[in-house]
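Q: Hand in one record:
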Amino acid sequence: MRLLEIDDLQTHFFTSGGVVKAVDGVSYGVDRGEVLAVVGESGSGKSVTGLSVMGLIDAPGRVVGGSIRFQGREIANLRSAEMRRLRGARIAMIFQDPMMTLNPVLRIDTQMVETILAHQDMGRAEAWAKARDTLGRVGIPSPDERMRAWPHQFSGGMRQRVAIAIALLNKPDLIIADEPTTALDVTIQAQILHLMQGLVEQDGTGLVWITHDLSVVAGFADRVAVMYAGEIVEAARTDDLIDAPRHPYSRGLIGSVPSRNRRGARLAQIPGGAPPALDRPEGCRFAPRCSFRTHGCEKLQVLRDGVRCWRAGDLPPFAAALTGTAS
């Protein structure tokens, strides 16, 4: 039994302009002790998928179809009270902006202790000690002193560590991290990645890491799911996807990483932009931007061997595509 199993998830937003199918038939899963990276451009549906798992979709949006199973239990349509008991205890989320987790008018100790007491039966002194120890675990120096500090007294990197500490307080089985290192400098980013990887290995926590940065994924994730325009277009083990991506969009993402380009050459890029959420193509949603498209791509929507591309098996080798010799 997988820790998390999402099957054909559909999360739509009902607006005055029409129905936005932010997540449109997404399926993926994650096991204990595994890191799954969900990669794609802004607006691809990565974050909405994570919020759907957490039960944090508000009007005008809602989950309209599909299944979300956590430890074998269907949670897609749990009542609010049941979801609150699960959220923060068994499933936790780390946001890109730590101030979405931290209340600016409450001290750190108050926020952490209340998080523990909401889900565990223990005294306030014991909860305070546990919170302090967790701050130390995520690398915050002088945790006794920091417990009494206010969020504005921390740097951006330290605030993110506090947000991670709060996510860890109740030892959740699953953590969903929504681009938590995007706004941080490279040094702090590396420290947090190392911290999260260690937690996964030590505690057997399942981790869904949402990102648009493939350079982060390469040495961190076990598997990668690539999203585009509300769909998973390719999913594979990290090494396989990076060395031999099969979907044209995956090839474009990896080919646009600066280290993949010849010295002095222009940076590779994917032409055009993602389709508007209210006006997506009927067939392959990537077809208008795809250099490999042929007649019929705009009408076909085919999932072939786990890749949402009917030409996935007959594209030129990836190296050729990078040098511009593919056709």
